[in-house]
Amino acid sequence: MLMPRQKTPALSVDLVTGGTFDLASETSERGTVICFYRGLHCPICANYLTELEKLTPEFAKRGVGTIGISSDDAERGKAMAEKISAKNLRIGYGLDLSKAREWGLFISTSRGKTSIGIEEPALFAEPGLFMVSPDQTLYYASVQTMPFVRPHFSELLAALDFAIEKNYPARGEYTGAV
Fold it and tell me: Can you give the pTM of this predicted structure?
């Protein structure tokens, strides 16, 4: 299990625009929001990423980078980027499912075609949203077992404003006996 204030696993994926996202090389002043999404087959993911795309400039104003990542292949990753008209949000693809597990993501099996007529991959990761500090330690995490009921990016921005103003630390770090 990932723990707040502890180092996150290494993370490196190819980007649909070319090049590579490598968490170890991120230079954002206050860290990176990593949005793991299910894939092109998920209409909820497209809506969710569209919201993040729109708010990416707001995260950037606060010194926070953003990326959406799935286990989709390059073709499906590019199709998602086109679908959400990604201009600001980086879209990474090819997430290895063993790496998804390291991040605590749940893995699902295909149920065939989705409501939008796109075949689910045989295996794929369910959603997770993480805020990683510049030193690659975990600040915030939310992991889902289903595509529904995800954190709102506008609320994350408001929380980030509070955390910046109050110098609020990551919480949930206690690992001792209870």
Answer: 0.97
